[in-house]
Amino acid sequence: MDKLLAKAIEKVVSKESKGLDLAVGAHEIDEVLTIHVSGTLKKGADTTYTPTADIPLKAALALLLEKAGIVREAASAMLVEAMTEALNADEDKNEALQSRMKDVDAAMSRVQSAVGTLPSKPRKGAITGKVELEIVG
């Protein structure tokens, strides 16, 4: 099977299988099909995009502890305490916590604004089209 035909079949099958609700477990399939595949696939032009900052929180916290230097152990203990408090806090009713979260939002915003200075990255053009499968045997 060539790759173009495989992509055409993938387009139809992925659409048809959306919303499939399978029970947990293995599902055996043993079918022999003859199919007629017809339609058109279109490949869009490659584009560029500016990557967005998806801040890896765990890595950021690890680096923060590293940067804490001599107070690393104390900072680590404070982090554990803060995480425990956050798990037990009702964010919506805790005004002090809401205020502190705004400080974090501001810091994250500063990082996000730096994203505009990142170089663009290439993105392959989208493949779209209308394809039909007909089982003929």
Write a structural description:
By secondary structure, the protein is of the alpha+beta class. The chain has two domains: about 5-45 and about 125-135, no CATH class; about 55-115, no CATH class. It contains four helices and four strands, in the order H-E-E-H-H-H-E-E. The chain has helices spanning about 5-15, 55-65, 70-90, 95-115, and strands at about 35-45, 45-50, 120-125, 125-135. The protein has a two-stranded antiparallel sheet. The longest helix is centred in the last third of the chain and has 20 residues, at about 95-115. The model has no long low-confidence stretch (mean pLDDT about 90).
Q: Which class best fits the helix and strand makeup?
A: alpha+beta
Helical fraction equals 40-55%
Secondary structure tally: strands: 4
First CA to last CA: what distance? 18 Å
Q: How many strands, what sense, and barrel or not for the largest sheet?
A: 2 strands, antiparallel
Write down the domain tally. Answer: 2
